[in-house]
Structures
1.
Amino acid sequence: DFLFFWGGIFLVTTTLVAFLKKENQELIPAKEETKGITDTYRLLFSIIKMPAVLNFCVLILTSKVGFSAADAVTGLKLLEEGVPKEHLALLAVPMVPLQIILPLVISKYTAGPQPLNTFYKAMPYRLLLGLEFALLVWWAPKVKHEGGFPVYYYAVVVLSYALHQITVYSMYVAIMAFNAKVSDPLIGGTYMTLLNTVSNLGGNWPSTVALWLVDPLTVKECAGAQGHTCATAAAAEV
């Protein structure tokens, strides 16, 4: 019902935009350098070969390795420790207004000549919160009782996620501001797309690797089956 309702809203609003919104007929005087797919990719390769852009790509592709495991695995491990899925989903609700307000607040600090300063300042705090997330997972079975988890545990989880969101958005807004600042206005769309794609990839590949490594790096013990290990999925099933 939820998806059906918002699907209907989406169809109605986009249809109204298609019929009621008129394109601006004024011609833009600036000449576009890119005219087709081939020219666009040639331009992308010429941009990425620039030493400064290459250094930036290496930086942004590796900058999120340190907290990829905490970001990708914490929620799954809390579920594994018995935190109800619906409770964990409800904890995301208080984050929505925070996610709306944070970019507005952080943009004041990234509007200057050095937007990446905010990125650098937020990184150590995000790394420390990764350790705190590990403690949250370790703490979960300690406080669990027959009725579930105490209210104070959920309060600590919400506070931890809120602090985490501040660091996430500080880094995200800073990178976006930097990409907008250094992109050549004449080919701004192409330039921004390249840098934002690299930024997205820099966040996605470490999370994927972290999820892939969870199983082989998890230490498991078999209860009541001496001489057997649970190192692999097949052995655990046996």
2.
Amino acid sequence: QEKLDLRQQLNEAKQQLLQQAEYCTEMGAAVCTLLWGVSSNEEAVKSILGGSKAVKFFTITAQTMESFVKSLSEDMKQQDLDSEENQFVLALAGIVTNVAALACGREFLVSSSRELLDTMMHLLGDMKPGLCNKFKVLMLMSLYNVSINMKGLKYISESPGFIPLLWWLLNDPDTEVCLHTLRLLQSVLLEPEVLARSGTEVRETLPLQRIIALSHSRHAELQALAKELLEDLKIFDYEA
């Protein structure tokens, strides 16, 4: 009887933990969705970054993003875009994108939240092509925004495996993912100091045929950007 009572208590505790987790996820999704909207206001962002919990918030953001990606099933074919978990992580990524869109936000992220930048680059390389496209796009937008800051550009471009990551993302079937990957690539390679440091690796590993294929995409913006990048770097001088 004692064992039965203990098992009953254990089951009840498990149920309570599950309910608490669901509540926290719902609350997190709701609050962060509201904060995503608020973070489009510059004064609101300055107020957030000036608070004592800003660094902790972005540390938790990195951890939450990582946990979300780890929870994805290996054979996942279709993502539940309406799930609370998905809305939660998208809102977090959206907040980071909005913060990075401002000069003060970029400076804060590259100075105080490099763990978050590292996590985003790591996760972009971990997710399968065609999966979590909106999440990928938001992270790519964040990295592009950070790259506008010279310190941010240097940090991102010097991260191990960064160039291979871009080539990996260019093979994603989603046009928006490819578009924002090209924007980040252009931002990085048009800076002379970065190009001087990474130019050899780029030339030796450049997926020329893929970029040429994107320059013929039916997606007008993607096509234009791919052509612009090819012209900027004079890639047609290289042999396929």
3.
Amino acid sequence: DPAQPITIILDGPNYLRWSSAMTSFLKGRKLWRIVTGDKPAPVKRPDETDDSFADRLEDWDSANHRILTWFTNTSIPSVSMHFSRFDLAKEAWDFLSSWYTSADLAHQYQLVSTLNRLRQESGQSIDEFHSQMSYYWGLLVVSVPKWHSLSELISEETRRLSITSQQSPFIIATTSSAPPHRSDNSRRPRCTHCHRIGHAVKTC
């Protein structure tokens, strides 16, 4: 097995690209279910011998730590230093997901803004421009939050409403600080005698 299975080195901001490449690699090695927790450490069967169970557990543990090693070898030191406290690849993966994921409205807005600003540069082929756009569209797709239950959706809605209510005084202050509307006096008559607005010289 290669010591460094993918070419992308996780540095934090590129988590989405790294996780996508690592997921594809692990699925190709039939190891993805260990990371998701769908294939936990084996449990001894009632009719199983100690030696047979020990062999199965050793095989699973070997695959689990091989994944942890790949995580370490494809991360910068400031990221990989966190892996020493995890014994399970699933724990390390879940930590990375919660720590580095950017699946929120701010990140999606940034990606959409980038897509809106994209223009085909002079000398750039249509294939190159299409690949560039496809890359950002791919990031936008994987940045959409994946809700596992209705309660998570309700909790997220409550959190966003709380943030909005906390920000509202600043929004009001900003709005109220706008200069007052000035009446348009240029359309009202000005007296040529006293130079006051509102009447003409005939009625002065």
